[in-house]
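Archive entry. Fields below.
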Amino acid sequence: MTDGATPEGWAPEIGPDVSLEEVVDKAFDYRGNITVVKTDGSETVGYLFNRNRDVPVPFVQMFDVDGAGPHTISYVDIRAIRFTGRDTAAGNSYAAWLRAKEAAKAADHPEKGSGSTPSRGA
Amino acid sequence: MSVPVSQMWAVASYVIRQKLAGRKRYPLVLMLEPLFRCNLACAGCGKIQYPAQILRKHLTVEQCLAAVDECGTPVVSIPGGEPLMYPDIGRLVESLVARRKYVYLCTNAILLKERLEAGLFTPSKYLSFSVHLDGLRDEHDEAVCRDGVYVQAVEGMKEALRRGFRVTTNTTLFDGASPLRMREFFDAMMDLGVEGMMISPGYSYSKAPDQEHFLRTQRAHDLFSTMLSNPKKRWRFNQSPLFLQFLMGKREFECTPWGNPTYNVFGWQRPCYLLQEGYAATFKELLETTRWESYGRRSGNEKCRDCMVHCGYEPTAVNHTFASWRGFRDTVAATVAGRF
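PREDICTED_STRUCTURE:
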């Protein structure tokens, strides 16, 4: 993984070191788009919102980048998963907000802040 | 009394019917999330961090109504996202009211005044605007990471009250909250004329930007005890007094994760409103295939250890009220005396 905090950009090699189940769990927990490479070579890019291993044929479910879906893909049909999209939960807007507040105070601004939410990850 | 008698009766008769039918697990309030899109990005919220195509999605009114019919709760809470950004919110609320569902529209109220002026809603005993306010102006604006929101929300609430709508507040408390300021907040809300207030400690969403200020159990007990130990007669809370006693550390309850099931663009969320461990296609599938024994404090699940949030424990409190004469007596006594 490229970063301890987020798997953004991660392209794991599924094998002895990391299992498909582990990668699927990471993808399920990830708040960005991913790319699923299927065993037939085709790729689906989108948001993986569900996975179920407690059924006879384990599967994942995704909405693609156009929002279409859900697309259901069986575990056995997955060759690889790449974490290609931006992690929307990464960064810290609260810290950015606090920084903006402190900056406003330091500048002795009559208002308490800019009145707008600091951009995410700012 | 902060909840209309008709609503109390609807909930009570529903719970009694479930008990007479011998249902071990039954839902009480449907958490219906028609969209995740929001016009705020609050520090303690883990609900809105999704890629653009997910934030653009929303349920259709027909999907919402099918979910409501499927789980059959007497109360439907509409959080989100910001439900006033849902394009069909007027039609959805109208349809729910026609079904005699008690609707809590959970809003940050930034758009409330505008939507009311547009004539989107009609006052009804079935409809309450449940306005998210995490305290007085400074505390609330800090919690939602934007100045001016408190003032906007209060303007919207005044407009709703003026037009004859039911208005309640919902407040999430984090570590560092001042009991004294919260008591001032309760006074301010009563002065404003809200019907009742709902309070709860925040949940430590793993995706929330601020991970440092969630309340742990003992600190939550201390905070709520200090805040509520000598409540003013005029304060009205729109929630079970037994739940408030639980927050104060006076009662031991276990979570009822199926009590407030959640339906959104992904389906029926497992296991509860706060945790996302997967989705079921139907409510029946959710009830029958979720490993409920893996959740709640007694399960040892670390994610549940410090959770005291109302979506899991208020259904327990309500169930406790109707589980024995003692529970019923305690609820009536606390309600009548106004003490917890």
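CURATOR_NOTE: The beta strands of chain B are 29-32, 75-78, 102-107, 127-132, 166-173, 196-201, 262-264, 267-271, 276-280.
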